[in-house]
Specification:
This protein has helices at residues 32-41, 52-59, 77-84, 97-108, 156-163, 177-182, 187-205; strands at 4-8, 24-28, 46-48, 65-68, 112-118, 129-131, 134-138. It is of the alpha/beta class. It has a single domain, classed as Rossmann fold. Strands 3-2-1-4-5-7-6 form a 7-stranded mixed beta sheet, sandwiched between helices. A hairpin with a 2-residue loop joins strand 6 and strand 7 (134-138). The radius of gyration is 17 Å and the shape is globular.
């Protein structure tokens, strides 16, 4: 089944890595240097340098499947439990664009969708699926998957091996390579969720 897929806040494409080249994929990334890396790894995808939140509002009806990974630091329990407690970061408002996107897709979008974020420091306002250190909101059932240690504290070469991206030729990106790799959703998890959405689509076709 070939889908038109919108991949928002794409980074370098951790979630997209195992999706193959049969789908028509549009990736949206705000940082042009990171978008260039994504394009190098996935030359068949359309890459748009833009605000993913606004792009979603303007284009969501054009796709069969939408994946969104909005910025997560303002929701992270790690920030609350460690950094703020030690006085390293000032308190900030949680970025509620996360819930704006969930509500938009839940009530206006007819295709399949999944929104990913970190496990939050608060009780989620809308109940998600939870796997490892991820929350997932989706309009299809996601069967369990075992998620291994993300090795966030590993060195860059170890993270490159785990995520399957060689960033050795990219310098002066403006963002630490370790942060870029840590932000990648595990490729096997991205594939599992896409497969679950397709299984749900096939089920809809036979109803």
């Amino acid at each position: 089944m070939n889908l038109k897929i919108l991949n928002l806040y794409s980074g370098i494409g951790g979630n997209r890595k195992h999706w193959g080249d049969t789908h028509k994929i549009t990736a949206v990334e705000l940082n042009p240097k990171i978008a260039k890396i994504y394009q190098d790894f996935f030359p068949n995808d359309k890459v748009v340098v833009a605000d993913a939140h606004q792009y979603l509002l303007e284009h969501f009806e054009e796709y069969d499947f939408i994946w969104s990974s909005p910025p997560c630091p303002s929701h992270s329990r790690v920030r609350i439990n460690s950094a703020v407690a030690r006085g390293q970061n000032k308190p900030i408002y949680p970025d509620m664009k996360l819930y704006e996107e969930i509500l938009l897709l839940k009530h206006y979008f007819n295709g399949k969708w999944c929104i990913e974020n970190v496990v939050a420091f608060y009780e989620p306002l809308i109940r998600p699926h939870e796997f490892g250190n991820h929350f997932f909101w989706a309009n299809f059932h996601i069967r369990g998957i075992r998620v291994g240690n993300r090795e966030h504290d590993a060195k860059v070469d170890k993270l490159e091996e785990r995520k399957g991206f060689d960033l050795s030729k990219y310098n002066n990106i403006g963002v630490e390579k370790k942060k870029i790799l840590r932000n990648c959703v595990e490729p096997e998890l991205g594939l599992h969720i896409l497969n679950e959405s397709q299984r749900d689509i096939q089920g809809d076709l036979f109803k």
